[in-house]
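Here is one chain, start to finish.
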Amino acid sequence: MRSSPVILLQPASQISQELRAKLERVSGGVHLACSVDEAKRAIAHYRAGYAVLDAEIASFSDVAEITRDFPATAVVCIHRLADEQLWAEALNAGALDIFSPNDANGIVNALSRSSAVMGAVAA
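Its structure:
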C-alpha cells in the first residue's frame, strides 16, 4: 500500500480496533468514521487513498457515490455475512472487494493490489 490515509467506517468494537491496528501498520494513518457523511468528509479532508466501508452502514448506492466522487480512493467493503450476492453488489457499486471484518489480511491485500494497479496506470 502506498503511504496514504485510510478511512474506516465501522462501529466501534473489538474487531474494528484490531482492523484499525493492522491498517495503521501499513498505511499513512487510519481515521474512524461513524456515518457515511462523516466518511465522505474525512475522505475529502485527509485526501484518503483508501476507504474501508461497512456495508451494514453504507448502502451500495453510498459506495457507488463515494467511488464516483472520489476516484483516487480505493474502496473495500466489509460485512459480517459477506456472500456471493453481496460480493456482486459491492463490485457493481465500484468496490474492489468485500470481506468479513475479521479478514484484516484480505482487506490489506486488496488495498495493496489497488496501489500496484494505480501505480502502473499512473506510470
